[in-house]
Queue: 4 jobs
Job 1
Amino acid sequence: MKNTAHLLNWQPPAVINCVGCIEKLAPKLNENNIKKVLIVTDEGIVRAGLLKRMLNSLNEENIIYFIYKGTAANPTSKNIAEAVQVYKEQNCEGIIGFGGGSAIDCAKGTGIAAVKNTSDLRRFKGVLKVRKDLPYFAAVPTTAGTGSEATIAAVITDHDTDEKYAVIDTKLMPNAAVLDPELLLGLPKDMTAYSGMDALTHAVEAYINRSNTKQTKMLSEEAVELIYKNLYQSYTDGQDIKARTNMQRASYFAGKAFTRAYVGNVHAMGHALGAKYNLQHGQTVAKILPYILEEYGETVHDKLAHLGDIANVTDEKDSNAVKAEKFINSIKELNNKMDIGENFPELRHRDINDLADSAYSEANPLYPVPVIFTKADFIRMYKKLMSV
């Protein structure tokens, strides 16, 4: 039986974290008697040569590997069907998700498809419906944002309907997470910005949600502090290994936080937009976040004020309302400094009703948000996000 004791701490049982540690994954696979693996990644990762050191170490450990590189920016049921076909045809014993959150989520979906003998994952939509151990699964993030290497969730887009949905189950926690900041050094500026703001959104939503705990609050606070000290530096100097290391830590902490405390209305709206217009997830939630925080109003002032203090964007004499406003404005400033923008030119009036339906269905009753939105609220928020 798979060891699940680590789930008491909501993290992978093996976390390998150091500069150059990607070479330690192959020996870890050998320790677990995994001799044949499927690597789930994307075309950009392959072209950039990021797999090279891991593949060399797999060869040295005599581990046979096969590569699926078709993962889309928003991983689809079609991607999973293609990947699991390779897994089964080659009699693989384990899976490595190598890349951003899309590749890692696709790898999680492939693991579900392998043990459940189906690539139609809609039946697992929601919470605790997988209920079967996945093959040995290692997550290797090459971005600092999604935190998927520390979560029990996978977000999948249905290839036929464009519906974007989450599968949440303790069985999706990776057996191993490899946090090697060297893999982030070549990350382009736009992806550095998008993934970093995704991590910030995870930390903030987990912190203000009603299901947070002492542990998740500490994780969120640590993530916010690291992001405010290191994200813009990572954006301006992508070769700064210290900043990259700290952003990778921030992403991991934020992932641990929202695995326990959940995300909220920002993600519900972002998932619907991303599925409809095939938008990059981090960019989407980055734009939405300040609008939602403003909408929550005084309900979240005390918590945002504390985050503002941690981010060092407030003055001691400020009231909590002013501190909260300054923190929200600092998010807008980060977006502007990193050319993320604040509206969605893709958004069309004719789509808003369907988008609001999707966001409402995702958020309620699953997300323990500080303010519950009606469908009318979601419609109003989408209208605010339209490009003028």
Job 2
Amino acid sequence: MLIDTAEEPWARTLWLMVAVQFIMSAALSVISPILPLFLPQLGVAEPSAVAFWSGVLNSMNFLIAAFVSPIWGSVADRYGRKIMVLRSSLAICLFTLLMGFSQHLWHLVLLRSMMGAFSGFSAAAIALVATQIPERRLGYALGWLATGQLVGTLTGPVAGGVIADLTGNYRMTFFCTSFGAAIAVSIAYFGVAEVGGAVKDKPKLSIFKAIGTLMKTQGLMPLFLVLLLAQFAVRSVQPVITPFILELVTTRTGVATLAGFAFSITGVADLVASPFLGKRSDQLGYRRVLLICLGGAALASLPQAFVGSYWQFLALRFAIGMFIGGILPTANALVGHVAPPAQRGLAYGVTASATFFGSFLGPFSGGSIAATFGIRWVFVLTTVLFFANLIWVRRTVPEPQRA
């Protein structure tokens, strides 16, 4: 079995945080499908304007969070990681609730910006789990945490659409999401314990000096680039999946459903692979599993540029999802091993910035390449990025010493 049933003190923390991660990831993704439908109620009526502002509202969180994540990570090292989980969860709960009362576009833009500035939940959750779990089980624990995040991300948009359709009121999606986030806050506050979190007697450094000192840690800076490139490669394909499917099928009937399958099949494969690869990385070595995942992702990515049918494309999307499922858990486990324990909050804040930048830049770059050179060249780009990442890891990332 993949789930560790041993009665360990850290197990309760892990499974509760997986549940909290699931709820909060769903809360962050739940409004994606209803934004284009909600914007006309705020006075945005032109289809081109709806498309533009939907893109802005979906991506601005990533950009803002990329800049503030190291700051919150540094605060977590000083005052504890659990309080950062609570702070980010409360921010998502509050700002989502207020978005339900928006009357103008600028209300929504301001509140989404504030959510990006005050959330940073995923980095806080990883930092908390990584400091409570034995280092020999980091890959296993972070694999399950990644699974909670993925399932929440997949469930959120479906839940948002269902709530909106059942109630006939788009604002109810915001209110229900806020209620769910409040449940996650309660679980984290009452159920999750943190041992030895705060480091109040550490030297007081400015955030820039602290980051500079941290980046001198051997192997950490290369992992920053690993996470940025990996997230960039994954996100750059997403804007072109639906247009590419239109090229592969002979009819437009059911295209939205086919596109939904193409999106979700990668997530399903990721869901299967993340806990398995995370656990195996504890046994085989994090660097080795990371190299295998990057190489497999590159090999599965290239054939997508040459497929001639939808089913071939779907099979390759599943294959690439199996390998992508191991990249983030193993890379984050490596971060946990190479970063000093007293600076893990800052370390995960910095690496979270990398994933946020990749999430922000990837869709823009993928869409631009597709518009300029054609959709199939986007898959060539992702192949090059995965292979470049593999070479970079092989040359610069050491395997941590076993305890």
Job 3
Amino acid sequence: MDNKKLDQLRRKLDEIDEQIITLIAERQFNVEQIGNVKLSTNSPTRDYQREKQVIDKIKNHAKLKGLDPEIAQHIFELVIETSLSKQEIQKVKESNYGANKSALIIGGNGKMGQWFAQFLASQNFDVHINDMEPLPHQENFIADLASIELDHDYIIVATPIQKSADILRELIPFKPSGIVLDISSIKSPLRLPLRQLADSGCRVVSIHPMFGPDIQLMSGKHVIFIDMGNEEAVNQVKQLFQPTMAERIDMKFEDHDRLIAYVLGLSHVINIAFMTVLSESGEAAEALAKLSSTTFDAQLGIASNVSAENPNLYFEIQKLNHYSPTTLNALSDAVQRIIQMVHQDNQAAFVNIMTQAKSYINQRS
């Protein structure tokens, strides 16, 4: 009898799940209609005040139904993010900015190259790809740059950092008529070839998309733009991201690598060190997972994502940045000081550095 009752309850649960999916699909259809209205009225994709109203209403309704409001909030934050992503994609497609324009992506079969190929194709660009080998059934693949006229409106260099410097040099004799831009995470090795290309009369822009190729929503993400002497070219490249919710940041060339040494270099190496300690600890990952804490879970999630990235790229980010020794030495010094505080039972010093860190973080708000 108990098994029969359990089966009935499970079938009821399945029915409820199907109803939830049906309602979410109906909500998404309504989201598309709202997106169309936003496009026709030139309204912004994201409305934070409206989002707060939705979340507050959901939390209040959850309380009335005896559901944890925090759980309801987490669920609907994901639903809202999915809705925003859908509207953003709508807006990018409707921009039609690439109509009658072409783009060449050198290194277009790498992960970021493929992201840019899809992004530009969605704006109706005629996208051509240059790489070592074509993907299966790939159209518009160019094996040899010397065999074509480089008359594309945009030429995007999406290869590894050191390779990008070489390609920029190779482009100089061709004097491409379109805008040439690199997307490298480190800019120091590209300084001379970018300058030489600009001095040869080419329109050159250096950008740094501060996100990976798996991104679904550009709200809250940043794209750095570095003016190499042609403000009009910078504005044209910015136009590529105008339909998105990405924040476009202007930055001087000389500031980029110093700041990135902290934003990327430091955060990468901390997570790589964290995973190295765990992997060499002799403790089973499964055993640690069973004992996990909130902090450990959060750190492990970030470190796992870092570990899954391209190790060659991450090495270049450390090796090719002239500012890396500064941050790496500062990290080493901080760890050694903490070790010394613990060994010397210096609780006051330990409390002081945590208080200092808290004060620093509070400056952001």
Job 4
Amino acid sequence: MQILIYSYNYHPEPIGIAPLMTELAEGLVKRGHKVRVVTAMPNYPERQIYEAYRGKLYTTEYKNGVEIQRSYVWIRPQPRLLDRILLDASFVFTSFFPALMGPRPDVIITTSPSLPGCVPASLAGWLHNCPVVLNLQDILPEAAIHVGLLKNKWLIKLFTVLEKFAYRSASKISVIADGFVENLLSKGVPANKIVQIPNWVDVNFIRPLTNKNNSFRATHNLDGKFVVLYSGNIALTQGLETVVKAAAQLKEFTDIAFVIVGEAKGLQRLQQECQKVGADNVLLLPFQPRQELPTMLAAADVGLVVQKKNVISFNMPSKIQVLLASGRALIGSVPANGTAAKAIKHSGGGVIVPPEDPQALATAILDLYRNPEKVENLGYKSRKYAMEHYSFEQALNQYETLCNSLMAEKSVIQPSIVTKQEV
């Protein structure tokens, strides 16, 4: 099968959708399919095109059997509203041309965000006469409006139209959690158009490792410490200031160390917060190379999932699957009625505390610090749940089955059209 993956983010970007789409593409190649990826020049999380890709309009490369076609995008490190519009618009226009090049795909898989990217993907599907699978990682513009990222009424109207177009034009919509299903059904999307496929984790790559003789701990003077780790986005939806304030409350416990790993801009903001509240027990580090991820996760005793109160209920951070697979205990500082809280509770591998409540977070951390048997038990349940529910092979089977079913439906429909014309 010839599969085209249309994704704004892809390798070598380290977090979010990029690793997921990279693993999906390479996994499908290993299953014998031919995969082509249309994507942007890598720019996340620094929000500037990586040095090796600057000055190029288009470039094609190959990695692990996947053909990767990259196109230029307008990107600025500190984007204003106009810059964000130009970013989305540039990807819509520049990515469309490579999407039409190369062999005709049998199926197109496109991801959202970016929502405007659904337009060229859908148009390419129409021109190639092939089905389009919309993979929803977030529901826009609803999520952006809820946290105050999108306020302009004209842009809200535009993105609402784009959302309706994306749902209507897609042959199938794959969603990552049951909260997404409920949201789409409430908007009139037919139930038979929705397929729930949770985000996955490579349980062979991310696996429980001992934190004894751990190189990450040794490098950052963490040996003998009880390490509380957050790694991921540092944006409006996370509210990492809660972690810093909780750390300040626990600084008398000198063998409890907090580690926050993220993008430089977010770390600068958190550094100011650390100085403000006197949290000298917080280590701020840039994103680590992906090959070092299992070792970094193994350095932790506890992994954190953090959201603000106003995060919309269906938001599902992909770091949950990663932390579970690493066999670590989780603390979720997240809304109790949200998808993230439900996933952590169902896993049995973590505890939930109210979001934006430093005292509650500090209390939960202290409880685990004082109960190593509880930490070990939560970690065991984490790994077990990840193996049973989030393994990459299970997700790959589901995507392969979905693509095959769309091909089968198409082969049934097309002969009937020919017969009708002949009659």
